[in-house]
Amino acid sequence: MPVWLREYSWRQSPSAVYLSLPVRGLRVTPNSIFCTEQYLKVSIPPFLFEAILYAPIDDTNSTAKIGNGIIFFTLYKKEAAMWDSLTLENATKEKLQCLRENAVLKAHERAKEETEAKKVTKQEHKKYALEATMKLEEAERKRIEDLKEKERLKVTKELELWKKQQQDAEKQRRAQKEVELHQQVEQLKEKKKEKIDKTRIPSEVTSKTRLKTTRGCHGFHSIFSENLKEEQLPAPRSAATIKVNFTSRVFPTALRESRVAEEEEWLHKQAEARRTISADLSELEDLKEEEKNPDWLKDKGNKMFATGDYLGAVNAYNLAVQLNNKLPLLYLNRAACHLKLRNLHKAIEDSSKALELLRSPVPDNENARVKAYVRRGTAFCQLELYVEGLQDYEAALKIDPKNKIIEEDAEKIRHLIQGTTQDS
């Protein structure tokens, strides 16, 4: 059985009603208050306050303030008039039940409309984020293509200049070879002339000797011709191109130094993993190669977060998680985006997943674990779960005890918990 709260005070003006409901010692949250045009309810189990108002009010603009053990309602009338009483008197039980049911139905319809409106707004935000992402990608793609084109033109010019230099050098080499060949021919002619001068017979030689020489003249010319042939330089060798083919290798080591069986097993496992990822991510077939890289998506999400595009950053991290769900930084960064977007339960879930992946406490992941505890603790505190939030802040302090900011935030949470305990 509920305990009815019957102590209240109210006053009015032609346009508004001011109602004060004492709730000292009770913990009141916005979810404890339910208000429609002609029905007001405050539920703090086991305590209950219910009122069928005298006339309809503007429940959209009406307000409720909670503080100092009092709920102060400001109810704006739909029609300016003075009420005879706060509640509708002399109403039958059936009429009260009908008014109560109509109020609940209207509240459900309004909640449904708000949900649909939020859904439409979320879709519009998602569409806008996708369009913005596509524009950024198009601009980045155009910039890269321009850089490639500039680099291609630069390399083409350098190649043409190098070819021209090679042609000029080849012409110089040919001219030098011709000069050297001409010099060698001149040297041969001079040597030949010297030999001829040495073989001339002196004038004192007798006629008999001359005769012998004359008879052996044919042999002399024959021997000279053979010597001349031997001293002639051989023709230059013809140019040719030697092609060298190398065995294609996946690994950087040479084939003679590799373990072929182990490498083939590794390549087989990698192929199986790629086929599994391709089968699981068939919806990502239209993405480019760089867009299928989780590290590239993480960097892109970081840039969007820095510019304040939190929805775009969440989309980038979502794709990265689909590609590789074992990177704790993806969940950690997405938790930061959810905190900015007030998606507190999702922030808690992502922070917990990051802590699960960072389970091995090593010095290299201390900073990441501190961020995960702080972000989850912040989400708990914003949900008014101060005890759980304090536990996460204390866990972060154990890892980084010299962090003054975390210590100050933990002290604030302790004061909040003490104040809540005293009020209750």
UniProtKB/TrEMBL annotation:
Keyword terms of this UniProt record: Cell projection, Coiled coil, Cytoplasm, Neurogenesis, Nucleus, Repeat, TPR repeat
Residues forming coiled coils: 105-198
Any single biological process term in GO: epithelial cilium movement involved in extracellular fluid movement
TPR repeats by residue range: 370-403
Domain CS per the UniProt entry, residue ranges: 3-87
SUPFAM superfamilies, per database record: HSP20-like chaperones, TPR-like
Compartment(s): Cell projection, Neuron projection; Dynein axonemal particle; Nucleus
Gene3D superfamilies: 2.60.40.790, Tetratricopeptide repeat domain (1.25.40.10)
Keyword Cell membrane: no
UniProt cross-references to InterPro entries, sorted A to Z: CS_dom, CS_DYX1C1, Dynein_assembly_factor_4, HSP20-like_chaperone, TPR-like_helical_dom_sf, TPR_rpt
GO cellular component: dynein axonemal particle; extracellular region; neuron projection; nucleus
GO molecular function: nuclear estrogen receptor binding
Name of the molecule in the record: Dynein axonemal assembly factor 4
Organism: Piaya cayana
